[in-house]
Input
Amino acid sequence: MSAIRPQHLFPLFADIQTLSGVGPKTAPLIERAMGGRIKDLLLTAPTGAIDRSNQPGIANALAGEIGTFLVTVGSHVAPTNRNRPYKINVYDKTGEMEIIYFKARAPQMEQLFPEGTERLISGKTESFNAQVQMTHPDYVLDPEKADSMPAIEPLYPLTAGLSQKMAGKTVRAALSVFETIQEMGEWLDRSFASQQNWAGFQESLKTLHHPSHAVDIKAESPIRRRLAYDELFAKQLAIALVRESTRRAHGREFRHDGHYVQDVLNGAPFKPTSAQSRAFEEIKKDMQSPFRMARLLQGDVGAGKTFVAALAAAYAAEAGVQTALMAPTEILARQHAETLKQMLEPAGLTVQAITGRDKGKVRNALNSGLEAGYIDVVVGTHALFQDSTAFKDLGLVIIDEQHRFGVRDRLRLSDKGQSPDLLVMTATPIPRTLALTSYGDLDSVKLDEKPAGRKPIETRILPLQRLDDVIDGIGRQIKDGNQVYWVCPLVEESELIDLTSAEDRHRQLTAIYGDKVGLLHGRMSGQEKEQISNDFKAGRYKVLVATTVVEVGVDAPDATIMVIEHAERFGLAQLHQLRGRVGRSDKQSSCLLLYKGPLSVSGKARLEIMRESEDGFLIAEKDWELRGSGDLLGARQSGIPDYAFANLDKHKSLLETAVQDARLLVQNDPELKSVRGKAARDLLFLFEQDYGIALMRAG
Output
């Protein structure tokens, strides 16, 4: 899904080998470090800067610091032994210095440092036997060419074989191409840019790569904030276009009495919470609308989002259309299928699971049933949306725990049906910043209540030194008929990391409790995982030692104890997810967070929040505050995009403004035909968010 790129931007998408000085040997190195197109170099933010404006004089040079010196070349001391360095004596008004080169040739050195001439040299100075030295200077220039050395030199990402000098030279060559682009307009509101003390985009990008001060490249500088805003705005503009396109896209009006929904409600062994009822009413309203539904259902741990999904599927089935629910793992897909079968049975609906394990005749039969319309609800992994799977009439797509998919992937799912409604579900409460960044095209509804009768989970924080007490306590729980999850951070023991492995703890607990202890980890096959999960659920195991694979998928309502070893190694959101595996019945449940001291300040704060709160939405925000977006556990899987200039921790306020600005622009100029709209198109192409334009045109 792409759009036609404006011709005036073509030079920026050219290969870096079109730049002077970049040949077939250096191009792969530069591409590995920064990218293979001219625009990739321009959108690579410097990682730091060297201040070469410091000219202290030789006598005032500090060891280990970068300095720039205007010197006169004295004598050359060529080595008598090839293993000895070549030395050049230089001096200024304040003192003398030795320039050191290894494996240097006399003719080359004499040409670079002619005796009696002045040279501008820059590099790191050291002290050896009370003598100031500089080994292999970064710059050696004729004073008349001083302008070719930047006073503030940006530093760029490198790879083996790529020097900082070559990287900088290539970026400056890319900048020369950028300066020839004449037709780029301004997409920012002028009063807003003026209020922020921001220069134009082209000027800001030029200053970033030609900084006047080292502070210019820092995240807090006006230059960097301006470029961060542009990047955030591009992302939000694409999302706003998707949102607008979805709202304008003609869907199908599903209007009927809802008898199937009533059958499901009558057959349920519990009364829905007010949050579940409210969420379904919003979903039903979307499904009755002539426009396609695009909704995010956020359910806190144990809030019952699967039941809301069942009500939506029942409503779709009464309209004569099919529902597809996609889950991230095979084990979760099969569990969802079993749960939905029980929930939808009162309405007489057919539910089937299709996963990678189904092959041959079984798979063919399932595919035939789906295509003929005998299957009302199908549950599976992403294989559901492959070309080989066909539906009679797909009207509702539900995606569960959609951590690994972005906006573009959501758009492709409509191919399987005639404008099917889309419901994205997550049991991981999402911080507002992440919701805006990755789910901004979806209307959101929250499940923030737990079913009646659920008791609060008692959370305790214990040092690992109390391990024997914990094991004794587990024994008492087993005697009382309770089940226990025991989560470890590793699968097998590692010499490099001092953490307990699941296999090691399984051996220890098996020695005490025998065959009542099961083991589950991610390296097992799907069939093994499912068998062990079912055995635990059936009560054949009393203790399940596992890695975080139990975070999503393993469901045993009778489990009342969750033990998490090295809890200080986990993020708050993940601890909350793991804790949510217990407390799913009317029994009192407990979560024991075992830590290895000493705890850091933030580590202690995280565990204290877990003890004080069971509100997943509050915990998600606190996790973001304490750990930051870069360290947020599962960040890459949660859809946080990679940004070149933006830092979501430092530019959070800019994101909020970018969301409002993008939505306002699309609202006022949905075709991006105004002067500002056309300029914004360029921005979408530069930051490769042009799928928004493509969708706008398709819509």
Notes: The first strand starts at residue 48 and ends at 51. The two ends are 13 Å apart (CA to CA). Confidence is low (pLDDT under 50) at residues 630-640. The CA atoms of residues 357 and 525 lie 10 Å apart.
